[in-house]
Amino acid sequence: MKDDISQKATSAYQVIELMKQQALDEAKLDKRAKQSSIKLESLLDEQTKLLKEANERAASMEKRAEESEKDAREAKRHAVWANIIALVALAITAFQYLSGS
Asked: How far apart are the C-alpha atoms of 62 and 49, rounded to whole Å?
Protein backbone atom coordinates (compact mmCIF):
# COMPACT_ATOMS: atom_id res chain seq x y z
CA MET A 1 0.00 0.00 0.00
CA LYS A 2 2.83 2.33 0.92
CA ASP A 3 4.50 1.58 -2.40
CA ASP A 4 1.24 2.31 -4.19
CA ILE A 5 0.91 5.70 -2.48
CA SER A 6 4.56 6.43 -3.13
CA GLN A 7 4.20 5.46 -6.78
CA LYS A 8 1.06 7.63 -7.18
CA ALA A 9 2.82 10.54 -5.50
CA THR A 10 5.78 10.14 -7.82
CA SER A 11 3.44 9.97 -10.82
CA ALA A 12 1.59 13.08 -9.63
CA TYR A 13 4.91 14.88 -9.14
CA GLN A 14 5.95 13.88 -12.66
CA VAL A 15 2.64 15.15 -14.06
CA ILE A 16 3.08 18.45 -12.22
CA GLU A 17 6.65 18.78 -13.52
CA LEU A 18 5.46 17.96 -17.02
CA MET A 19 2.72 20.60 -16.76
CA LYS A 20 5.27 23.16 -15.50
CA GLN A 21 7.57 22.33 -18.41
CA GLN A 22 4.69 22.65 -20.88
CA ALA A 23 3.73 26.00 -19.35
CA LEU A 24 7.34 27.19 -19.71
CA ASP A 25 7.44 25.97 -23.31
CA GLU A 26 4.19 27.79 -24.07
CA ALA A 27 5.53 30.95 -22.44
CA LYS A 28 8.67 30.72 -24.60
CA LEU A 29 6.55 30.22 -27.70
CA ASP A 30 4.35 33.18 -26.77
CA LYS A 31 7.44 35.33 -26.25
CA ARG A 32 8.86 34.29 -29.63
CA ALA A 33 5.49 34.94 -31.27
CA LYS A 34 5.36 38.44 -29.76
CA GLN A 35 8.93 39.15 -30.85
CA SER A 36 8.13 37.94 -34.37
CA SER A 37 5.01 40.09 -34.40
CA ILE A 38 7.02 43.14 -33.37
CA LYS A 39 9.62 42.41 -36.07
CA LEU A 40 6.90 41.96 -38.66
CA GLU A 41 5.26 45.23 -37.65
CA SER A 42 8.62 46.98 -37.89
CA LEU A 43 9.23 45.51 -41.35
CA LEU A 44 5.76 46.54 -42.50
CA ASP A 45 6.35 50.08 -41.25
CA GLU A 46 9.66 50.23 -43.09
CA GLN A 47 8.05 48.84 -46.24
CA THR A 48 5.29 51.43 -46.01
CA LYS A 49 7.86 54.22 -45.70
CA LEU A 50 9.81 52.87 -48.68
CA LEU A 51 6.64 52.62 -50.78
CA LYS A 52 5.72 56.19 -49.86
CA GLU A 53 9.20 57.39 -50.82
CA ALA A 54 9.04 55.44 -54.10
CA ASN A 55 5.66 56.97 -54.91
CA GLU A 56 6.97 60.47 -54.16
CA ARG A 57 9.99 59.88 -56.40
CA ALA A 58 7.81 58.49 -59.17
CA ALA A 59 5.57 61.56 -58.98
CA SER A 60 8.62 63.82 -59.08
CA MET A 61 10.04 61.99 -62.09
CA GLU A 62 6.67 62.16 -63.84
CA LYS A 63 6.57 65.91 -63.25
CA ARG A 64 10.11 66.27 -64.62
CA ALA A 65 9.17 64.16 -67.64
CA GLU A 66 6.20 66.43 -68.33
CA GLU A 67 8.44 69.49 -68.07
CA SER A 68 10.99 67.88 -70.39
CA GLU A 69 8.25 67.06 -72.88
CA LYS A 70 7.05 70.68 -72.73
CA ASP A 71 10.63 71.93 -73.29
CA ALA A 72 11.04 69.51 -76.22
CA ARG A 73 7.83 70.79 -77.86
CA GLU A 74 9.04 74.38 -77.43
CA ALA A 75 12.44 73.52 -78.93
CA LYS A 76 10.70 71.87 -81.88
CA ARG A 77 8.60 75.00 -82.44
CA HIS A 78 11.75 77.13 -82.36
CA ALA A 79 13.44 74.80 -84.86
CA VAL A 80 10.46 75.07 -87.21
CA TRP A 81 10.50 78.87 -87.00
CA ALA A 82 14.27 78.91 -87.55
CA ASN A 83 13.82 76.77 -90.67
CA ILE A 84 11.04 79.04 -91.95
CA ILE A 85 13.23 82.13 -91.40
CA ALA A 86 16.15 80.39 -93.14
CA LEU A 87 13.93 79.51 -96.12
CA VAL A 88 12.64 83.11 -96.35
CA ALA A 89 16.21 84.42 -96.17
CA LEU A 90 17.27 81.93 -98.85
CA ALA A 91 14.35 82.97 -101.06
CA ILE A 92 15.21 86.66 -100.64
CA THR A 93 18.85 85.98 -101.41
CA ALA A 94 17.91 83.94 -104.48
CA PHE A 95 15.50 86.69 -105.64
CA GLN A 96 18.21 89.36 -105.19
CA TYR A 97 20.71 87.22 -107.08
CA LEU A 98 18.30 86.62 -109.95
CA SER A 99 17.27 90.30 -110.02
CA GLY A 100 20.85 91.47 -110.13
CA SER A 101 21.86 89.26 -113.00
From this structure: 20
Q: Is 1 helix (H, G, I), strand (E, B) or coil?
A: coil
Q: What is the DSSP letter of 89?
A: H
Angle in degrees, CA 75, 81, 87, rounded to 5:
135
End-to-end CA gap in the chain: 146
Tell me how far apart the alpha carbons of residues 53 and 9 are, in angstroms, rounded to a whole number. Answer: 65
Cα-to-chain-centroid distance, residue 97: 67
Stretches where the chain sits below pLDDT 70 are 1-4, 8-9, 101
**DSSP H helices in 1-101:** 2-100
pLDDT value for 56: 97
Nearest to 43 by CA among 32, 35, 54, 57: 35
Tell me the C-alpha distance between 69 and 80, whole Å. Answer: 17
pTM of the prediction?
0.55
